[in-house]
Predict the structure of 4-oxalomesaconate tautomerase.
Amino acid sequence: MSTGIPCFIIRGGTSKGAYFLAEDLPDNEGERDDLLLRIMGSPDARQIDGIGGAHPLTSKVAVIGANDGGIDYLFLQVGIDSAIVSDKQNCGNLLAGVGPFAIERGLWPAEEGITRVPIRLLNSAGSATAQVQTPNGRVEYDGDTRIDGVPGTAAAVVLDFADTAGSSCGALLPTGNQRDEIDGTPVTCIDNGMPVVVVAVQDLGVTGYESVAELESNVELCARVERLRIAAGLRMGLGDVTDATVPKVSLVAAPRSGGAISTRTFIPHRVHTSIGVLGAASVAAAALLDGSVANPLLEYTGSRIAIEHPTGAFEVEVELNGETVVRTAAVRTARPIFDGTVFPRPRR
Ligand code: NQM
């Protein structure tokens, strides 16, 4: 049997990932990535020989360490049928599990009641504070908070972000414009924690209320979205994004279930069953911004923006002052699923 590695599997928000202590993984990036591919079972469409869930939302890794004043969180997206491990994006969903993991592993002390865990997002220059429920100094996972896309309820983890604007692209509006035209299609390129290309559905010939399966089987639409994405990636300063997981593309439409705006988000080659945390923060910022393609569709102008998605809605708190982001926050839940030893597939 190969040497095992301590691993925690946690559902964070609407995603699921393998959480590791940085000290348990090789320092060398190439060796670390090779190990993670063998742990997750990649490359293989079913990830049959590893713990990956054969979908981008369940092929995720969090690497956690302690720093002087808090916790370091590095997010890695592990390719499924490709041998790629990418650190080029954040993941606000797995972030929900970082505070609980840090407390469980003794990296951060639990307080009585609520513990505020300061977290540095190593994928960007940003940071966040996670409020974890810790009655009697222990992490409480049970609770009555419901998030769409996850069955049942669990304890809330409140996430407050700092420095989300320009996380990967250096500016909230990476092209310098509220609106650009690519291939004759008006788009808003934005980065409030996640680089996203926002497109109004009427310009793509779909309703924006299709199911994930309908969108993923629309070959013509997928090809058009990908062409837009690659062209937008260049304009956003991200270079050739053919093999990159960013930017995402979010198709926006008028809300139809009492929310503020409706979305279908390509992440980028599958359609999200809901929407990412920072993806939602970016769409919300676009929706609040005068002159963007999303702004005319926004039906609510407060700071709590209910982003409708294929399995419900996600409320994100975003406040802008002109083009300056004043606040980005969201409520998620997290639940540990497994704590033990994972055995990587041997090298072939
Ligand atoms: O945008 C999926 C997810 C994400 C990312 C993706 C995320 C975020 O839902 O903050 O959480 O867009 O690749 O886990």
